[in-house]
Design goal:
heterodimer, A: 151 residues, alpha+beta, Ubiquitin-like (UB roll), DNA polymerase, domain 1, five-stranded mixed β-sheet, 5 strands, 33% helix, 17% strand, B: Aldehyde Oxidoreductase, domain 4, Aldehyde Oxidoreductase, domain 4, 3 domains, seven-stranded mixed β-sheet, 17 helices, 31 strands, 28% helix, 25% strand, globular, binds FE2/S2 (inorganic) cluster
Chain lengths: 151, 750
């Protein structure tokens, strides 16, 4: 066990956990930030996507002792109440079915669009390809990313 | 308007009572942000609620809360069911809040998510709930205003008496309405007067989903909750021999390690109690990660089991002895056994005319074999459940498609009366049939009882994928006989599977052919199976609709016209007593997809395939357009034509259709679970290939046949036929027929 000071969604948190604990479980079990989802645990599905200094990473393989003073953003911190253009586009297209994969999809899309604000369809496909949606909402996700890129 | 009697369900739900003032009825200590319902901007939560019936309560300010009775699995019933109530209540959708109801069999009719049946089976009850509340509000206003009730009308949440120019919001009369006797009869709206039904409404949980609010079973938490995981046998055919808890018991955060038996030996299982592994090791601790670490460290020994028997009841209720054979099975063995079984006569399920003679006399016989592998459901949210078991009562909370039968399973196992087990449903991160089988609820409850503490049982993805309850492995041989003029004279299907087959003997093209034979067979297995999205149909349609494409080609006729001709025959002069489809509606979706896809005018130069199917009370026809890019198929466009009767929430029905299309293409192209020595060879998404963004169709268009027929579901019907439409389009593109799933391999043991 070790104490870690974490900067998450512009707030300071302190946790006392095993240094090899993935951020996914730190967020979910210790900090009650459960918007970040567990899907596979092996970097295959993207459900656990968070931002580390603005870059999308898989929190299931990002260990708490590797964070240091980097800034973490989770879906809860992407905006105050869903105002982020990506979240708005998701609502506009009513993308979700079960909704479980969507926080991860949104976090991937948001990081991607901040680097590439006006992507082509192919670039969207490539950027989003690591995020599985078992319900098959891919066409809506693509449309929503497109909408967000235009806003 | 339609007048209907309300008597049949009076006692079941139409009980007026004053709700306890204030406070929303919501589960106990969900973590903070879950403790409020999603309140759309502008809605003011009332200080006082008046419960009019089990489906709705009205606040003094006119805000209405509608309880959605059925489990929400992504099929969007949490929006569409309240829409039906709101329609008949005649309230402005902007003033409606929605809450998930807990399991309550005394109030609600069928709290189950499965068979695409949520809307079909509750449509009448939901309409009546809204209509009777509206009648009671009118009664209350008539009394107060001292006017005949017939003269009191409603409009979007307001009561009106036009002659005296009186007008009041529902909220003003909610309290009085709650005291009005439940009406004997109520008026229902005519479909052409619907203002909410048929107009797309956004997912009521939309904002919570995109902001990551706690919604799912895995998110559910209470103070002092422990985490638990199970370790099950690594292979089918194995059972627990021994394990050494000592090493892990002292690991950080670990509370206990013990053997867990899900069902007692003398327990008569229900259909929803299907399970492969009844005895496991449970590990309990303070956090998911600590428990997971201990799970990885634990030394467990397993041994092959002998043939086993237990009593189990089917859907209908009658209990049978179920035999579980011993042995460690492999995919190779399954393939060999299937080939052997298919070569022998099967059990005759339907026989019209004299098919044997027609085949003997045929100028040509076309025979094709189709196969599909075991599949795992792989819902995005792995199985999990919360349980808090006390001495004399229990609360279980989480994602389940079958709260009602599982309440009984949990109560029986804990030794508690049924009414002492409270079941609450969270939103489900998918299910696809997997959450019809609720062993994890019993496991969570047993662990909580032992620990005397609230417990969350969590399956890893690997647990979820290797625990069993799969879509069976299937095999079908189709034969068609032609005379010298290439006329189709007989049709024969022989279908089998491990451990069950997918045959629906009375579906199309049965009824359209004079000489028809359907046979079935099955091979025993200790690998457990269960319903997966459009069970049976999900293979049946893929095989049959591919075969029909080849038959049409053999005859030199257009594949849509060929089907329409058969359906015309089935409609005008059906063969046989029992044909489980409506030929006119079946033809309707084919005609619609022909028109919308420009089949007759716009097919030149395109690699197009068509298919149609009827299952779960709805009809779907599809056209798939694809191209080859560097030899890889890319689906450009999919056209869907659906007939599910009245469409409640069009955009949601379109979303479900799109999901089914993507899922169907993914299943047919990539889905496969294989076995070696009883051990599943894929246990996570690195080995089990799921369809991804780049493989999804570029465009999906969805159309509905417009009619006023009682609504049916859309969760399953578009899933099966798209596999065949894809196979038929692939044939156009490649010249190769795709007989064996997954199509990326297209071989069956060769
Ligand atoms: S849970 Fe991290 S990628 Fe799947
Ligand atoms: S919406 Fe269900 S997994 Fe994506």
């Amino acid at each position: 066990m070790a104490v870690f000071n974490l900067n998450i969604n512009k707030k300071q948190y302190q946790v006392d956990v095993d240094p090899s604990t993935p951020m996914l479980w730190v967020l979910r079990d210790h900090l009650n930030l459960v918007g970040t989802k567990y899907g596979c645990g092996i970097a295959q599905c993207g459900a656990c996507t968070i931002h580390l200094n603005g870059k999308a990473v898989r929190s299931c393989i990002t260990f708490v002792d590797s964070i240091g003073d980097k800034e973490i953003t989770t879906i809860e911190g992407l905006s105050e109440n869903g105002e982020h253009p990506v979240q708005q586009a998701w609502l506009g297209h009513d993308v979700a079915q079960c909704g479980y994969c969507q926080p991860g999809q949104i976090m991937t899309a948001a990081a991607f669009l901040s680097e590439n604000p006006h992507p082509s369809d192919e670039e969207i496909e490539t950027a989003m390809n690591g995020n599985i949606c078992r319900c098959g909402t891919y066409t809506r996700i693509k449309a929503a990313v497109k909408t967000a890129s235009n806003s | 308007m339609t007048i209907v009697k309300t008597t049949y369900n009076r006692r079941s739900f139409l009980k007026s009572s004053l709700a306890a003032g204030g406070g929303l009825m919501i589960g106990f200590s969900w973590i903070a942000s879950a403790c409020s319902v999603d309140t759309p901007k502008g809605i003011v939560i009332p200080d006082e609620w008046f419960e009019i019936n089990a489906y709705l309560k009205i606040g003094e300010n006119g805000v209405v809360t509608i309880f959605s009775p059925n489990p929400e699995i992504g099929q969007n019933v949490k929006t569409s069911m309240p829409m039906i109530v709101a329609e008949e209540l005649d309230v402005d959708w902007k003033n409606v809040l929605v809450e998930q109801a807990a399991l309550d069999t005394s109030k609600y009719t069928r709290q189950l998510a499965g068979g695409s049946d949520s809307i079909r089976t509750t449509w009448s009850a939901l309409r009546m709930a809204g209509a009777s509340a509206r009648t009671m509000l009118r009664g209350a206003a008539a009394k107060e205003w001292n006017v005949p009730v017939e003269e009191v009308t409603t409009e979007a949440g307001f009561l009106k008496h036009t002659p005296s120019r009186k007008k009041a919001g529902y909220g003003e009369f909610a309290s009085a309405a709650a005291e009005i006797p439940v009406p004997e009869k109520v008026e229902l709206k005519e479909p052409n007067n619907f203002t909410i039904i048929g107009n797309s409404k956004k997912n009521v949980d939309g904002l919570k989903i995109v902001t990551g609010k706690p919604l799912f079973g895995l998110d559910y938490k209470v103070d002092g909750m422990l985490y638990a995981m199970i370790i099950h046998p690594p292979a089918f055919g194995m059972k627990l021999k021994s394990y050494d808890p000592n090493e892990v018991k002292n690991m950080p955060g670990i509370k206990d390690v013990f053997t867990l038996k899900t069902y007692n030996d003398d327990y008569e299982r229900q259909w929803s109690d299907a399970i492969s592994f009844n005895e496991m090791v449970a590990i309990v601790g303070n956090s998911t990660y600590e428990v997971w670490n201990a799970k990885l460290m634990l030394n467990v020994e397993w041994e092959p089991f002998k043939e086993q028997k237990y009593m189990s009841a089917g859907w209908g209720g009658n209990a049978n002895e179920v035999n579980v054979p011993a042995g460690l099975e492999s995919t190779e063995g399954h393939i060999a056994k299937m080939k052997a079984a298919a070569a022998k006569p099967g059990r005759i399920e339907r026989r019209d005319g004299n098919p044997e003679e027609a085949f003997r006399k045929a100028a040509k016989v076309l025979e094709r074999t189709y196969t599909a592998p075991f599949l795992a459901h792989n819902p995005m949210e792995p199985q999990n459940f919360f349980a808090d078991v006390k001495e004399d009562s229990a609360v279980v909370v989480g994602p389940t498609q079958t709260p009602e039968p599982m309440q009984k399973s949990v109560a029986d196992r804990l030794g508690l009366p049924l009414d002492k087990v409270k079941v609450e449903m969270t939103r489900m991160g998918g299910g696809f049939g997997r959450r019809l089988y609720g062993h994890f609820m019993v496991e969570a409850a047993v662990i909580s009882q032992k620990m005397k503490a609230p417990v969350k049982l969590v399956y890893t993805r690997e647990d979820d994928m290797t625990f069993g309850i799969y879509r069976p492995m299937y095999h079908a041989v189709y034969r068609a006989a032609f005379d010298k003029d290439k006329k189709l004279t007989a049709f024969h299907v022989k279908m089998g599977g491990v451990p069950e087959n997918a045959l629906h003997a009375n579906r199309f093209p049965a009824g359209a052919l004079d000489n028809y034979l359907a046979e079935s067979w099955a091979i025993d297995s200790n690998i457990s199976v269960g319903a997966m999205r459009a069970p049976g149909s999900n293979f049946n349609a893929a095989a049959e609709q591919s075969f029909l494409d080849e038959v049409a080609e053999e005859m030199g006729v257009d594949p849509i016209q060929f089907r329409l001709d058969l359906l015309k025959r089935a409609q005008e002069n059906p063969v046989g007593e029992r044909n489980d489809y409506d030929a006119a509606r079946y033809a309707g979706v084919l005609e619609l997809v022909r028109e919308k896809s420009g089949w007759d005018t716009d097919s030149a130069g395109k690699n197009r395939g068509v298919a149609a199917y009827f299952c779960h009370n709805s009809y779907t026809a599809q056209v798939v357009d694809l191209v080859l890019e560097n030899g890889e198929p890319k689906v450009e466009k999919v056209f869907n034509a659906n007939d599910c009767g009245i469409v409640i929430n069009p955009d949601a029905a379109i979303n479900m259709t799109e999901g089914s299309v993507v899922d169907g293409i993914g299943t047919a192209m990539f889905g496969e679970l294989t076995f070696n020595q009883g051990e599943p060879q894929q246990n996570n998404f690195d080995g089990y290939r799921m369809i991804r963004h780049a493989e999804a169709p570029k465009k999906i268009e969805t159309y509905f046949v417009e009619n006023d027929i009682h609504p049916t579901g859309m969760g399953e019907p578009p899933y099966p036929p798209v596999m065949a439409a894809l196979a038929n389009a692939l044939y156009k593109a490649t010249g190769t027929r795709y007989y064996h799933q997954p199509f990326v391999k297209n071989s069956f043991g060769s």
